[in-house]
Amino acid sequence: MKRNRKPFTDQIKQWVIESGARNVKYIRPVRPALATGLVAAVYAQVATDFQVLPPLTVFSPAPRLLAGVWSVVRETLLVGPVPRIPKEVVATAVSMSNTCTYCVDAHSLMLRGGLQHDTAIALVTAQPENINDPLLRSLANWAWKTRSPLDQDEVTQPFTVESAAQIIGTAVAFHFINRVVDVFLDRSALSLPRPLYWARGLMGKFAEHAFARRLVNMSPIPGRSLELVPYVSPSSSFPWAQSNPFVAAAFARLEAIVEELGDRVVPADVRQLVSERIDHWDGEHMGMNRSWVERELRSLEEGSKAVGRLALLTALSSYQVDANIVEGSRARLYDDDESLLGTVAWSAFAAARRVGSWLEAPDPFNPRTGELTIPPDTVSVSANFAADDAGNAYLAAADTRSRAHPISMRGD
Hints:
mainly alpha
């Protein structure tokens, strides 16, 4: 009697998904089989356009937040007109600058799936100068230095005005995601039990062929995620996004969702303290000593200090958030996953938005050679779609549908 066995590629895919799910800490993401309402709708689109797995599922305890994060990730990283590989270089380089090993593993795997093995190796070994392709090397160098405004004077933007929204948007998105991942995800995106760690490289090669190659070659249609998030007016926080209406709308809507959630779950004095501290932060690494945190907390009432500690560390030194920090804040927050997630997401987004404030689109009147330009064949399909009457009509239709849903973080 023959046994029914899944194809090996399906087994690898399942291993990657389960590996990510096992690494989630402190909260319980909604499992796809149990998803309802907005979470189910987002998961359905994620399953079509990418893959339902962390870190996206980490945001599921707050349904609107999940939809907002998915919209930003989709409209920057996953869809055209800018090709996928340059954006994966940006995602990996930003994650390296933030020492987010989970995201480095995940996105260097995507690079290998896109047959950019040398590029992936150069990035994970912190040697971007060894990238062979001059454009990808310039992008990696730029992305690595997005963390500090002081470094912006040393690099030029290796992309055009038309490409800026998705390139800068990908960088800002990962400055946000890296911080959330540091708090809620453990170890690697490709983890194995310690006795099997020797096989990690081999399993990574299988994942590259059976999993990453399919994902990195997908080409979703721009704009469709906007149906899942409530309409808001355009935001002035992201001027570099204006060349792409989908990216601009996605960031504006995520900002509104995060701010509404922060107003509800983060104490007002903590929000004020963190906002003021971030306004004077220029991307510097805070070091392993946490004495700076305790100095900042002196202005808070005793009851707010535990939450303030979590919020400050998430924003400025997320890799230092540990179980003691999380459990200490839980005692002062509402006892639910949404409140903990909301505090972390608000803090992470505040820091990422600060990074975005010193990133600029190139000067259209000062063109340079060696820039990332959009290939003509994708311009006709994607870039024009975003700019012409059909694209604007689609965006208007998505806005009309989403206006019917007021921004609420409670329920589906």
